[in-house]
Write a structure and sequence with these properties.
MetI-like fold; 14 helices; about 75% helix; mainly alpha
Amino acid sequence: MARKKRNNKKLLTQMALYFIVFLGLTWALVPIIWMVLSSLKTQAGMFAMPPKIFFEPNFDTFKYMFSEDGGFLNYLRNSVVASVTSTVISLVLGALGGYALARGRFKQTKHIAFWIISTRMAPIPAVMLPLYLLFTQLNLVGTMTGLIFAYTTFNLPFALWMMMIFFKEVPEALEEAAMIDGCSKFQAFLKIAVPTATTGLVATGILCLMFAWNDFMFASIFSGHSTQTIPVAASMLITQQGIAWGQAMATGTVIITPMVVAGLAVRKYLVQGLSMGAVK
């Protein structure tokens, strides 16, 4: 009898947890699904009552956006260049710096690592003015180089911290064996440490890419007319005359699609990398 009660209690607990997860997924996914469906509707179809779930897709909005008149390709190119370049720079420097912190034999390693990640903890508005003044002196405001540097200022500390944790999980014996066989320290880093921490590199790269791709504040301040990114383009769809709902929904769909595809493509490595680098 007591065992049956325990089983019933366990079943009810599991059902409650599944119900909470279902509510959470519904809360998160329904707005996204609604946005994607609305981007394939006409203006009248978006506001039809009752809403239509099954309808004939309309791609006129996307055709206009990606045409020469729409100008969306410029924003897309700027977003790709800025986010990918910043991610690559952060990964290269983060891997080198993270390896140095993980294998370095010097004092205050923990304090240095904490100082590095503390710069990432600062809110973006707190660093906006100093960066703007610095970029103004260097003539970087409104340039793609300035936007890449702005993204890197936040991505690099995160990448350093993450890669330090990942490299600490790599057994030093593997590198020592490689050096016994004739490899230099740098060769052991490239041939042993980096391949072993590939899952960590992928996880860090995806997270850095997501930050740069979705950023609005840096792009709105440091980009110019010719270097504006997709989030900035989305904000310009809200005017005093109203909101261009079709383009807004289509732009939102374009923003989330690459990150969803990238996350699904590397989800295995992402989970492995994040679990591998878990702080003990």
